[in-house]
Amino acid sequence: MMSILISSTGFASEQCGAAGYYDGSLTKGSSMLREIPRVLRIGIGPHPQPAAQRASHLRRASLLLSISRRFTTTTTTTMAQQSPPQAQSQPNIHLYTAQTPNGIKVSMLLEELGLPYTVHAIDLTKNEQKEPWFLDDINPNGRIPALTDTFTDGSQIRLFESGSIMQYLVERYDVAHKVSYPKGTREYWEVNNWVLADGRAGTDAGKQTTLPYAPEKIQYGIDRYQNETRRLYRVMEKQLAKSTSGYLVGDRCTVADIACWGWVAASAWAGIKLDKAEFPNLVAWVDRIVARPGCNKGRHVPKRHTMLDYWSKSEDEIDRAAEEARGWIQQSMKEEARLSKV
Fold first, then answer.
1. What integer pLDDT is reported at residue 197 of this predicted model?
2. CB of 269 within 8 A of CB of 225?
3. Residue 83: pLDDT above 50?
4. C-alpha 319, offset from chain centre
5. Which of residues 269 and 251 earns the better pLDDT score?
6. Considering only 10-24, 250-264, 299-313, which range has the smallest mean pLDDT?
7. 330 DSSP β-pair partners
8. Residue 205 confidence class, pLDDT cut points 50, 70, 90
9. Of 95, 116, 146, 273, whose CB count within 10 A is highest?
């Protein structure tokens, strides 16, 4: 006769009967499931048990099976809720930018990473970056570049300041380390040094590139920022002289190179001629970056990059070019001063 033989262990009644058994551990849930074959065995028994005893054991086995299923489902759900969401496979990047040394950093990086993105060209001559829609939703500081993307939680995230944007893009999308190094490595921190040094170069070179727009020449300001910018160029020259790859850090082009390149490319506009005799490695590095398809394409976003054209122009030609923009820049400065008082 076929009968159901159930282990006489008290596990089902003593342990599963406790309301607080579940503690969120998948290990206990798995062990409970593994216990079922030992508690519940189906076979041919030579000595059938009384009906009442069989019914009691069946109830215990049923309770064990029910709790184990509930436990596993709850644990799986809890783990899914606690696990960090995975990055989406397709980015939804919108870049708000203009043709400036800061603006082109991000588009150069996006092209190097091969990421799709939509460009929103911001008209600086009309102070578009100061309009309410931009200040409220894109960058409260009213500057370019800025970027939005769909974050891992499905909602929009905004990034502003070029360094922050570049860090976000690299940490989220450069999993193959095309233009970066694994976090925590010696090279990772060295790249970080140069990206932050770009902030210094941008401050001084940036001020120097604005001097051509001044209504009058102030020699102290010209000398102060030209000398400091030239000093920074020498620092980069020495670093590149030691490099075996021709890039600032390690064996590849990284965000360090991309972050610094725009300010060096604008050297002539800043009043500094990069002579090959004085800066042989820096000049070669500028050309090396341009030779990269991604960087070369990215530097022309949202319109053609012209800073390298001024390398072959005279000071008078550069001054005439600056004169064309001097009017709207000074008007923009007045408008920004007015808004700062509101």
1. 86
2. no
3. no
4. 38
5. 251
6. 10-24
7. none
8. low
9. 146
Residue ranges of domains in the chain, CATH in brackets: 3-82 (no CATH), 93-340 (1.20.1050.130)
Residue 179 has φ and ψ, to the nearest 5°, of -130, 30
184 φψ region: left (φ > 0), alpha (ψ -120 to 50), beta (else): left
Separation CA 212–CA 200 (nearest Å): 20
For residue 138, what are the β-bridge partners?
A: none
Q: What angle do CA 319, 324, 329 make, to 5 degrees?
A: 100
Contact between 220 and 259 (Cβ < 8 Å) = no
> For residues 73 and 70, what is the distance between their CA atoms, to the nearest angstrom?
5
Using alpha carbons, select from 175, 119, 185 the residue that is nearest to residue 147. Answer: 119
Identify each DSSP E strand in the chain by its residue range.
3-6, 40-43, 93-97, 117-121, 146-150, 156-160
- The pLDDT value recorded for residue 299 is 98
Q: Above 70 in pLDDT, residue 272?
A: yes
Please give the model's pTM, rounded to 2 decimal places: 0.71
Question: DSSP characters for 284-315?
Answer: HHHHHHHTSHHHHHHTTSSS---GGGGGGS-H
Q: Which residues pair with 94 in a beta bridge?
A: 118, 148
For 45, phi then psi, to 5°, come to: -100, 130
- Cα 78 to Cα 18, 25, 87, 152: the distances in Å are 21, 10, 20, 19
Q: Give the number of other CB atoms < 10 A from CB of residue 302.
A: 18
Peptide bond preceding 84 in cis form (omega within 30 of 0) = no
Tell the burial category of 8 from Cβ atoms under 10 Å away from its Cβ (0-12, 13-18, 19+): exposed
Burial group, residue 4, by CB count within 10 angstroms (0-12, 13-18, 19+): middle
d(CA 317, CA 299): 23
Six-digit token string for 83: 């696990």
Please give the distance of CA 137 from its chain centroid, rounded to a whole number: 19
Coil, helix or strand at residue 319: helix
Distance between CA 266 and CA 271 in Å, rounded?
9
**Cα within 13 Å of Cα(97), Cβ side:** 32
